[in-house]
Specification:
single chain, D-Maltodextrin-Binding Protein, domain 2, 5 helices, about 35% helix
Length: about 170
């Protein structure tokens, strides 16, 4: 009886497909390059990374020419939003939300950033709102908006500060 079970077990194992572990591919997620966009009528062409951070942290709320700034981000949970907050503000999305809530509670801001569904909607909003500033992936920018230089550089230049290096794909 034991030998019959052994034969049956060997038969089942022989018929089972062999699953081989394939080594992981050395895949890389592409580098992320953010572009900061404003309305074409905005006279600002360049700003420092520090000035940009102050705007996105809502510490600076008016442009040098006096117009109110409207910060525009992608909707909560969107990777583009988290990337923008992490690269520009140096915070997690959760810590950023706490910061905005605190600033609102202090009374120093009336409203946090506007939330936009897509890159196309972001570009339309910035096109229609003279005080708006937002960020999109550099390859999504079109001629409807103005691309800002950050620290004198544009996306694609070697020392452009709004670049996240490529990382291993998950």
């Amino acid at each position: 009886m034991a030998s019959a079970r052994l034969v049956l077990l060997l038969t089942v194992l022989a018929a089972a497909p062999v699953v081989r572990a394939t080594p992981p591919q050395d895949r890389q997620a592409p580098a992320l390059v953010l572009a900061v966009v404003v309305n074409r009528s905005n006279p600002v062409d360049n700003m420092t990374f520090s000035e940009l951070r102050h705007i996105f942290m809502l510490d600076t709320q008016t442009w040098p020419h006096g117009r109110k700034i409207t910060v525009v981000l992608r909707e909560k949970g969107q990777p583009e939003r988290a990337d923008t907050i992490r690269i520009i503000c140096g915070l997690s999305e959760r810590d950023y939300e706490r910061h905005i809530l605190f600033r609102t509670f202090q009374g120093s801001v009336n409203m946090g950033p506007r939330a936009i569904q897509s890159a196309a909607a972001m570009l339309r909003f910035v096109y229609n709102a003279p005080g708006a500033v937002g960020s999109v992936n550099a390859d999504e920018v079109d001629r409807s908006v103005k691309l800002l230089r950050i620290d004198g550089m544009l996306p694609g230049e070697s020392r452009y500060p709004l670049t996240r290096p490529a990382r291993a794909a998950e």
